[in-house]
Amino acid sequence: MQNSQNTKLPTSDSIIVRYGGEIGIKGEWTRRIYERRLRNNIENVLNYNKIKYTNVIKKYGRIYLKTSITKEASLKLSKVFGISSLSPAFETTSKISDVVTKSLFVANSALHRGNTFAVRCRRVGDHPYTSLDICREVGHQILTKLSELNLRVDLENPDVEVGIEIREDRAFIYTETIKGVGGLPLGTQPKAVCLLSGGIDSPVAYWLIMKRGCPIVPIYFDNTSFTDESTTERALNAAKVLFDWAIGFQRRMYVVPHGQTLTELKEKCNERLTCILCKRMMYRVAERIADMEGAEGIVTGDAIGEQASQTLRNLRVLTTAAVKYPIHRPLLGFDKTETEQIARKIGTYEVSTQRAKECTAFPRKPTTSADPQKLLEAEKELNIEEIVERSINSLRIVNL
Amino acid sequence: MQNSQNTKLPTSDSIIVRYGGEIGIKGEWTRRIYERRLRNNIENVLNYNKIKYTNVIKKYGRIYLKTSITKEASLKLSKVFGISSLSPAFETTSKISDVVTKSLFVANSALHRGNTFAVRCRRVGDHPYTSLDICREVGHQILTKLSELNLRVDLENPDVEVGIEIREDRAFIYTETIKGVGGLPLGTQPKAVCLLSGGIDSPVAYWLIMKRGCPIVPIYFDNTSFTDESTTERALNAAKVLFDWAIGFQRRMYVVPHGQTLTELKEKCNERLTCILCKRMMYRVAERIADMEGAEGIVTGDAIGEQASQTLRNLRVLTTAAVKYPIHRPLLGFDKTETEQIARKIGTYEVSTQRAKECTAFPRKPTTSADPQKLLEAEKELNIEEIVERSINSLRIVNL
Fold first, then answer.
1. Distance from CA of residue A171 to its chain's centroid?
2. Residue B326 buriedness (CB in 10 A; 0-12 / 13-18 / 19+)
């Protein structure tokens, strides 16, 4: 048999989609909902990318689909939440002669002179052979038919793994496994509203929430003239990057004018409380938007101790402003470097570090330990109902 | 010059402690508090490990200390929150002749035949030379005096880095850098109470909170006879491992009898709500303990969607039971595999996977979408005040 060492892998025709242990251990009813959602999300991503495909089928804890551009499709799908890994594959029947012939063909394309290899087989269904039979026969044929390549079997740490998945009357053969992003399928959890500044932290926080299945509704508080259009632009761009992880879902962002509120706060209240009071007003408006959107929580990008407003004390004082919804803070335990690392991975770092005007309302000495009593007194100076009403009436919805 | 290729590195006499960018960018007042705390925590760990040391001094964004067992001490200190890296080092004066002689001595011990190396110098203070002068002179001397080793300079990716830190009249020379755990010094944030089950998730959540500076007060709810002493044992062991990251801090854990409460819930309320109602009672008791401890928040190990009680909807319904304190959930955005990875790193995985009786009160079909109205009705069947009072009166405090 001739080894085509310098030619490309012949075009595979299928993709094996694996979704991790967390979905697998759900009760049957829940698992079916998760699997159906994952399938929908997969189809949305393929359609969005104009990738032609057929036969998206779920079988024995995998999803299989057919397409002619398996590598490109796999890379796109590797960003679908819930997928743990993918393999471009070659489909054939589960007849042992077909499995062996196709495996040999696939191995021939992937193996190079002197390589070590292993054959792994997983099988579901009734067959006149065991998985071990398949491994032995395919291994033997590879060694015999490709003898001029000086191949060696190494089950521990092979250069090339020939994977064979047999599902009833079909078999899928592959040599490549692409890591997926993990998490749970988007849409298996309710929506969450997210306070998006556009800085490094908030997009990472919301990506993590999406990863666990929650579609997000970003809210940007526009503090012009303490900020300007560059700040707004940055937030819109960050939201766009996040929505690229949510193909098929709503791309709606709320922009709430907040400059007048901030001006009032600064005029009427102790300067050291500015950030706390500002955020408390944001939470109140966010609760109203959560009502409108049918969301189940408010998410922020706070990390303990990163800024003055994020001491454990101040997080407590902030939280009491939200009465109907929990404030979820997925970055609580993150170091800045860890957040930056994820931002780079998910594509928001570049956007978040573009030039934008930082809020000039930031006081010289923000409190790190706000007194709840003083805060309530300060808020007595404000007509909170009116501010929230004004914010809701003046917000605009942007479809990105 | 003779290269002692097979002998050990001569005993270094100092340690350079680096603490990351997050402390460095704090305002001066806050930074000083953080540095003082870090210094205290370092001394506590050294004392606890019976490591003799002198001269723990803070200078220009570093902490330097003297000890004769620099490697062992550095490894212990690499677990002190707030430290980004450490280097066992050799101290000398900042006279150029001393720096060069000592550097040559250090390089000679670390370099092997054919190695590439680089010299890096950072300097604070007034000196009759620049950092570049030092690098050039030391590099030149190494190449000349150790010529028989066939060394080569590689500034990009050297086998050995000879680091030189000059601080006014002192210089520290090193070739090894040990990664620290990062985070913020423990005790720079207020305390948090933590609902510790002892399973894989909760210890990781509390470690992350400690990493950001908060001392923890674990609370274990003892659900005997739905669980048994193996479950209690697991929680106590997990707390011990966590406290090993908090040398010098309180090692106090609360054990609250909760079995009777759970029995009452099961008798009086819809079975599908059991876990939600059980956790809501825990939150209420935790609030009372937070009052007693002067803590500023309640932390749990919830990850969105991991269990039925952790859907975004149910997290919302749970949270409303806490009225004074925020519920912080640092694992919200974590996949199980990510949590397990940290558990292994911090040493809790082994404890958390030891055999323990899982709670048998878990219902067959727990709700994934609790109705707040039905929940409030269910709770009307319970004398909540009385249950909380009973829990507080029957708790015991364990010093671990």
1. 30
2. buried
**What's at B3, amino acid-wise?**
N
Mean pLDDT per block of 10 residues along chain A (400 residues) reads: 48 92 87 95 97 90 94 96 97 96 95 97 95 96 95 96 95 96 97 97 98 98 95 97 98 97 94 95 98 98 94 96 97 97 97 94 90 93 96 97
Q: How far is CA A375 from the centre of its chain?
A: 37
Q: Cα dihedral sign for B178, B183, B184, B186?
A: negative
Q: Alpha-carbon distance A343 to A331, whole Å?
A: 12
Q: Judge if pTM exceeds 0.90.
A: yes
* Ramachandran area for residue A55 (φ above 0: left; ψ -120 to 50: alpha; else beta): left
- ipTM score assigned to the predicted complex: 0.93
Of residues B214, B315, B338, nearest to A312 (C-beta): B214
Minimum CA–CA partner of A29 in chain B:
B365
Which of A86, A295, A108, A91 has the alpha carbon at shortest distance from A191? A295
Tell me the HSE value of A344 on the side-chain side, using a 13 A CA sphere: 6
Residue A345 at interface with chain B, using a CB cutoff of 8 Å: no
Check if the beta carbon of residue A181 is closer than 8 Å to that of residue A80. Answer: yes
What's the rounded Cα separation, in Å, for the pair B380 and B376? Answer: 6
Q: Tell me: the pLDDT tens digits for A62-87?
A: 999 999 999 999 999 999 999 999 99
Q: Which residues of B touch A335 (CB under 8 A)?
A: 20, 22, 182-183, 211-212
Tokens in use for A39?
């399938």
Of A18, A104, A87, the closest CA to residue A58 belongs to A18
Burial pattern A236-253, b for ≥16 Cβ within 10 A else e, equals bbbbebbbebbbbbebbb
Q: Tell me the domains of chain A and their CATH numbers.
A: 14-179 (3.30.2130.30), 192-399 (3.40.50.620)
Pair type for strands B327-328 and B298-299: parallel
Q: What is the DSSP letter of B53?
A: -
Contact between residue B77 and residue B86 where contact means Cβ atoms under 8 Å apart: yes
Interval B339-398: pLDDT, tens: 999 999 999 999 999 999 999 999 888 899 999 999 999 999 999 999 999 999 999 999
Q: Terminal CA-to-CA distance of chain A, rounded, Å?
A: 55
Q: What SS3 state is found at B200?
A: coil
Pairwise CB contact (< 8 Å): B189 & A303: no
Q: Does A303 touch chain B (CB under 8 A)?
A: yes
CB atoms within 10 A of CB B85: 16
Among B211, B312, B338, select the one facing A189 at the smallest CB separation.
Answer: B312
**A209 → closest Cβ in B30, B333, B368:** B333
Residue A202's nearest CA partner among A306, A93, A62, A313 is A306
Distance of alpha carbon A43 from alpha carbon A51, whole angstroms: 9
